[in-house]
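A student in our group prepared the protein record below, which I am reviewing. Here is the record exactly as it was handed to me.
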Amino acid sequence: MTPETLVRSATSWEAVPFVPEIRLLTAAEPFGLWDWTERDAPPFWAFPWAGGQALARYILDHPGTVARRRVFDVASGSGLVAIAAAKADAISVVAGDIDPNAVAAIGINAAANDVAVSSRAFDLGDGDGDGDARDAEVVLAADVFYQRELAGLALRFLRAAAGSGAHVLVADPGRAFLPAAALTPLTSYQVPVLSVLEDASVKDVIVYRLGPAGLQEAAAT
């Protein structure tokens, strides 16, 4: 079964609860689908996670953050954040994920929302030399600090992007390995989530900036 076939057969179209302007192929529950995909990682591409919903909402409400800029969305999952960036008039959007099913889902979801997003394989462990990441003016990362090793890789990558001059935005619902000391909070949202995925039906999600001292926020208004 191809990734495209799996993605379409295991999901149905649903509006994103906190970002109803966007609809995604969404699974009813994770566990049966996880077994079906036969992958070590859960099917992150099949659900609108709390961090992604918040960051997508922030981008649509502050389009100047990405408008007329090259955007790279890290560990994109369903492509929700990338789609929001494209809707907010980013000049180009690349969405990367290590899971080939996610790469397929991003392409399908972007087309259904009438936006151009380039989806492809991307491994945070190899990200320092990635061309699209190096060229990005805005780097986005939602909900990437839930596991220790991944959190370390993500923070290293995001710091390198910020050090190269990229505007780096992160959204997180208080995961265990969030590097809060390295982040500057911008705003927070109460985001509805699927109770089967989280420990509550609503999560408090904070959108942060990571970047050099003195980075101006005027573009985000």
